[in-house]
Design a protein that fits this description.
two-stranded antiparallel ribbon, 80% helix, elongated, mainly alpha, single chain
């Protein structure tokens, strides 16, 4: 089950990256694809949280053993939210203006 969840988390993250990079059409943003990009990022965070919930303290993974308290587990959601916010700001304030400028 551990390795299955790790593969699911990796697949969601790869899907997030692919969807994010394919969300741009010339100088426009494809809103549904961009939404699914954020959704897959949150599903990645949720999967990592489930991994930490199930396997922290079991000595099966040094990374997951770090999340041994509720506070540390909540950092997974804080990090996911922060990553989502930074990605959204970069797209809104850097990528789209650059695409619009290069098209003109």
């Amino acid at each position: 089950m551990l390795y299955t969840l790790i593969l699911i988390a990796a697949a969601f993250f790869i899907a997030h990256v692919v969807l994010l990079f394919t969300s741009f059409n010339n100088a426009k943003l494809k809103a549904p694809r961009y939404f699914y990009s954020h959704l897959t990022l949150w599903l990645t965070g949720l999967t990592v949280f489930v991994l930490a919930f199930l396997y922290s303290g079991t000595n099966q993974s040094g990374f997951l053993d770090y999340f041994d308290t509720t506070t540390k587990k909540s950092y997974i959601f804080v990090f996911t939210f922060g990553l989502s916010l930074v990605a959204h700001c970069l797209v809104t304030f850097v990528v789209l203006p650059l695409l619009r400028k290069s098209k003109v």
